Amino acid sequence: MRILLAGGAVRDRLLGRPVTDRDFLVLEATREEFLSRFPRAKAVGKAFPVFILNGSEYAFPRGTTADGGPNGSPDDGLATDLTVDLALRDLTVNALAQEEDGTLHAHPLALQDLKDRVLRPASERSMSDDPLRVFRAARFLAELEDFTAHPDLLTAMDRTAASGSLSQATADRVGAELRKALRAPRPGRFLELLDQAGCLAPWFAELAQASKIPAGPQPFHQADVLTHVREVMDRLAGDELAGYMALCHDLGKTLTRPEDWPRHIGHETRGAPLAQALGERLRLPAAFIKAGVLAARWHMIAARYPGLRPGTKTDLLMLLHSTGLCREMFRLARADHGHDHLEEALADTETILQVTLEQEDKNQGQSSGLKLRQLRSQALAAWDRPPPRP
Hints:
Elements: E1 2-6, H1 8-15, E2 23-27, H2 31-37, E3 42-43, E4 50-53, E5 56-59, H3 78-87, E6 96-98, E7 104-106, H4 110-116, E8 118-119, H5 126-129, H6 132-143, E9 148-149, H7 151-162, H8 171-182, H9 188-196, H10 225-235, H11 240-248, H12 267-281, H13 286-303, H14 310-323, H15 326-337, H16 342-353, H17 366-384
Parallel strand pairs: 2-5, 8-9
Antiparallel strand pairs: 1-2, 1-6, 3-4, 4-5, 6-7
Helix pairs in contact: 6-8, 6-9, 8-11, 9-10, 10-11, 11-13, 11-15, 12-13, 13-15, 14-16, 14-17, 16-17
């Protein structure tokens, strides 16, 4: 049995990047032999044998059957198994394997593509074999910020989209690729590549036409909606939840009638249902769905925070406090409009949380809630009032 480090771990090692996830390739062994040596391994593969052991993936060569035997390829030992496996991977720069002694095995184009910093399909069928690879490629572009997409990748992605097979990808896995992209240095490039290759629909259908819609009147906006969204996402790179809020915040602009461009009056209200639908379609965690909806609905109000009435401030702050999204919302507002109101909002939140009802006003149902809101609003009004002249 031979076990080689494979895929992205080898790529990152060659690029001098930190290696976080390690996947392995199992050669010259059957499924039974592997399980005999590693009885704690858990089988997860369907198309070919894949096992999870100690958090790492151990895969048999692509082109083998579920029992670890050959799958229509010549059984010429290590060289053949490895060559087939590398050819069947997603991208050339991931089609790498390294033995314990350092011996490197690579797709014929892998090392040159690493040098040129390009993402290219490992074969003509790479994207069509597994449509999820379209979203993996977009995620890699977000993670590898000095790489570009090879024309062959754009062609393969476009062809996959045209075939209608993108809908065959599972929601959980598409959502997982998005979340990885949001943690990357350039999350906006995830949407950029999908847009360039015509792959935003069906999973990100709300943004499929966003590059054709002006983001707003000049001089406040000088780009289209998709470019603006990508720029805001990049400003929030690494903050997964705030980055998703950035993706959702201007969804409502995609429903503005063309005759009303470049203004988007009321896009906040229109955007909330779109954010809800997107989060549910991707089966994202409830916290993400709620954050996306709140971003679409409240981002403009948060951006105007200093000029809000005390009652509106109270409503916004209590909503954000109850959802735990105060910092993310004001980070989004800063990335979107350039003004930082977070410290003021946190101070005001502390002020209104100190306000309580008198005993006789408690437990009165709706009237108690209205009374508490009134008192909190009054506390903010007093806080905002300028000091008296001497």
